[in-house]
From TrEMBL:
EC number: 2.7.7.87
Catalyzed reaction equations: L-threonine + hydrogencarbonate + ATP = L-threonylcarbamoyladenylate + diphosphate + H2O
Role, per record: Required for the formation of a threonylcarbamoyl group on adenosine at position 37 (t(6)A37) in tRNAs that read codons beginning with adenine.
Name the UniProt record assigns to this protein: Threonylcarbamoyl-AMP synthase
Cited NCBIfam families: L-threonylcarbamoyladenylate synthase
Amino acid sequence: ETVYKVVDSNVNNQLNYAQAVDILNAGEVVAFPTETVYGLGAVATNDEAVKKIFEAKGRPSDNPLIVHIGTKEEVGLYIKHIPEVAKTCMELFWPGPLTLVMQVKPNILARSVTAGLDTVGIRMPDHPVALSLLQQLKKPLAAPSANRSGKPSPTEAIHVQDDLGGYIPYILDGGSTGIGLESTVLDVTHEPPVILRPGGITKEMLELEIGPVIQPTKNEQNLVSTPKAPGMKYTHYAPNAPVLLIDCDVEKVKKAVQQLQAQGQKVALLAPDNFRDIKADFYFSIGVAHRKEEMGATLYHALRACDKTLATIILATTTSSEGMGAAIMNRLEKAAGGKWYTP
Ligand code: TXA
Ligand code: MG
């Protein structure tokens, strides 16, 4: 029921883009790759179409969507006033994994995109398939991650098929997404700007260019989450088996696995390559230890893989919260519900 099209240099991409554009113009949804995760897009000015995103995902309707654009110039069509910091960010980080939350012009975007807020999150994705689609469509695309609500975001088209196959008409398969974690959401209506969700453009990268940026700690997030970052209040992905976080230390992990197995647990281990020889019941690599780009790119795939095993518990090694580590630890903490392994 879902048409699944591979877009790469070996096929007639033009036909696939034309089909995707027709489906979007007919008010339906299309899944497409971005450099962060796959998105589920609908024309952002068509309220009926945007509602289909919420239906397919099972997403609460008060959680606003990100608007994707194919050229920087379009921002002025939707945004009342573009702050100077936003102009700098667009210049330096677009196309790229940075969503800017700004004051929206009334009555242009579909109501369900903004969920009634007077702001909207906008980004220009850095992916050839997403950009081709947007530039041929010549309209903005509202697009959350293309997963069922409560599952990890899809980093491969097959993840989209697993979650939404049969519910959506069209998937463009552009291979694995590079970054693997959702974009940084930066609220530039606030002075200094606030990171509502950490991602590929890090606090450090931003501060080098625009000066101080607030990145709320875990506890502070609870304070700022209403009503600024509506998405934060929803329960995030939790695999079928509970996740416990643990330091990235081979001896500690080896002991933890043995102790859990002695208690009758089937242990899935999410850890770097050098933990491969530990005798866990299931093992999923997250790349070379502390190479945060590799960890970000493999994390959701590994979490999804755990759900296909008979593991009764998942041990996940951590990293520091510097750079991309902030985004990785933010997603890991959520998957674990903040729980750490204690001997
Ligand atoms: O990388 C990404 O951002 C991916 C790809 C597809 O672009 N999209 C994505 O969308 O992750 P979604 O809907 O899963 O996450 C959007 C986040 C939510 O946490 C939402 O609450 C927040 O952005 N958000 C959207 N509009 C907002 C607004 N006006 N004010 C505050 N937060 C907003
Ligand atoms: Mg999402």
